[in-house]
Design a protein that fits this description.
This protein is an alpha+beta fold and 307 residues long. The protein folds into two domains: 27-141, Tetratricopeptide repeat domain (Serine Threonine Protein Phosphatase 5, Tetratricopeptide repeat, Alpha Horseshoe), CATH 1.25.40; 154-302, Aminopeptidase (3-Layer(aba) Sandwich), CATH 3.40.630.30. The protein has helices at residues 2-18, 28-38, 41-52, 57-60, 63-75, 79-92, 97-109, 113-126, 132-141, 169-177, 180-183, 198-214, 254-258, 261-276, 291-302; strands spanning 154-155, 160-163, 218-223, 230-238, 246-252, 282-283. The chain is elongated, with a radius of gyration of 28 Å.
Length: 307
């Protein structure tokens, strides 16, 4: 009898210790959570790597926790580590839309916009963005179709447009700094032009050049017919207001404004947009509605998104 009891006890204990439900909880997820609460990304990564070694990693990991870790790494500029976390999260939780969004964020932040579009497309098929940064990213990535070939310019007897580039820096700087009072507030910012330096202007122009190449924004310089001076600028960007496809801003220098070039440029750009561009709904802030009304509308709109 004692032998039978001993055997039964031994079998019961063996079953209990081999049952997955009875296995001790892996502390890594809890320690990872605590590290994130403390803002210790190094400790969080150590716990993430510890978790990866577990055969039960897909079951014990939390998709939102890993998403948070990856995004904090991304925001701190640790792109390699953030990609590792995002790709692992995608592998462990392939049915979760958040893993697609995070990979789109990673590639977008790394300036790999084609890859960002590749991950954003299936994400948008699963859910609509509800975080403001993702809404902005979506608008930029989907601004125009991949096959769209943006016009290389516009010619008029009084002026001509061509894509703004770093090579225009000296002429652009002369135009802007020669009309500071006239241009202050023209693009919706009270701090521009301000005390802009030539190097700052050159850097901004390089950024516009890159945006044009990536098809996330199109900025054209407005030159005199002889191409010896910049007399204005045209900005074509995804609209920050959800009710429009594109947001257009134009300006000309103070002397050209006095010559009536501002109204002429605006009329020509509107006709050009209707003929050559794929937008159904465009808004001209500072023209169709004041900048104040534009930003009031934007503020009310963006309250529905998580910041």
């Amino acid at each position: 009898m004692k032998t039978m009891v001993l055997v039964l006890w031994t079998l019961t204990m063996a079953f209990a210790t081999s049952s997955p439900a009875s296995q001790p909880a892996d502390p890594a997820p809890i320690l990872l959570h605590n590290a994130l609460q403390d803002g210790d990304l190094d400790e969080a990564m150590m716990q993430f790597r510890r978790m990866k070694k577990s055969d039960r990693a897909p079951k014990i990991s939390n998709v939102d926790l890993l998403s948070r870790l990856g995004n904090l790494l991304l925001e701190s500029g640790q792109y390699g580590k953030s990609r590792q976390v995002f790709e692992t999260n995608r592998k462990w939780h392939p049915a979760e839309a958040i893993t697609l969004r995070d990979l789109a964020r990673y590639h977008y932040g790394s300036d790999r916009l084609d890859d960002a579009r590749r991950w954003m497309k299936p994400y948008l098929e699963m859910e609509s963005p509800y975080i403001l940064r993702d809404v902005i990213m979506m608008k930029r990535l989907n601004f125009v179709a991949a096959e769209f070939d943006p016009p290389r310019g516009l010619r008029h007897e009084r002026f001509l447009l061509e894509p703004l580039a770093a090579r225009h820096a000296e002429m652009d700087y002369e135009a802007v700094t020669g009309s500071v009072e006239h241009l202050t507030g023209a693009i919706g910012r009270r701090d521009w032009p301000g005390d802009l330096t030539l190097e700052e202007d050159r850097q901004a122009l390089r950024g516009h050049e890159w945006e044009f190449e990536q098809k996330v924004g199109f900025v054209y310089t407005v030159l005199n017919p002889q191409k010896t001076a910049v007399i204005g600028c045209v900005y074509i960007y995804p609209s920050r207001l959800d009710d429009f496809d594109a947001e257009i801003v134009t300006w000309v220098t103070a002397p050209e404004f006095e010559r009536g070039t501002d109204a002429l440029l605006l009329a020509e750009v509107k006709a050009w947009l209707a003929e050559k561009w794929p937008f159904d709904r465009v808004v001209f802030p500072g023209r169709d509605l004041s900048w104040g009304a534009f930003f009031d509308t934007l503020d009310k709109q963006d309250r529905k998104y998580i910041h």
